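Journal club prep — side note

Before the paper discussion, L.F. wants everyone to see what a predicted structure for a comparable chain looks like in token form. Sequence:
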Amino acid sequence: MHGGSGNGRGFLWSWLRDARSHGAILVAPTATDSPSPKTTWALMGEDTDSPNLARILETVRSRYNIDPHRLLLTGMSDGGTFCYVSGLESASPFTHLAPVSATFHPLMAEMADAERLRGLPVYLVHGQLDWMFPVQVARQTHELLSAAGANVTYRELPDLSHCYPREMNPAILSWLRET
């Protein structure tokens, strides 16, 4: 999922080559525009994006043979934060979360369904030089999710600022296949 002020068409290119080379089906939606045009995901207020993701997933499942044990939800910045918002819901269809350069409020872990968190594979990527969401937030998120029972893989990249590291895609896709 794209970051704030982005769109799915633009973020698609961050993943297309790696998804194709790993035989993965890629969907890169754009945040919904209801009730008025916005530039990011439903991080506060009514969540119109999770139902839209569910509709998209059902359409894809009706057309392709999808492994129900390998459904990755990933995103950059606001899209990564929305991975937490939507992916930690008890009804989330996604089996793996991979937020990148995202922020996380400690209440999100407390409000998440404890059963959902238990063993949930999370691949967290964050840059030490992130100026928007400081790396300390990612470190705290790693600790909170691990303490809550999630199976967290944490990658802190020393030379990464607030951007999407395409070089992490193969590692994320290998992790998806192995967990």
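L.F.'s comment for the group: The CA atoms of residues 122 and 152 lie 5 Å apart. Keep this in mind when we get to the figures.
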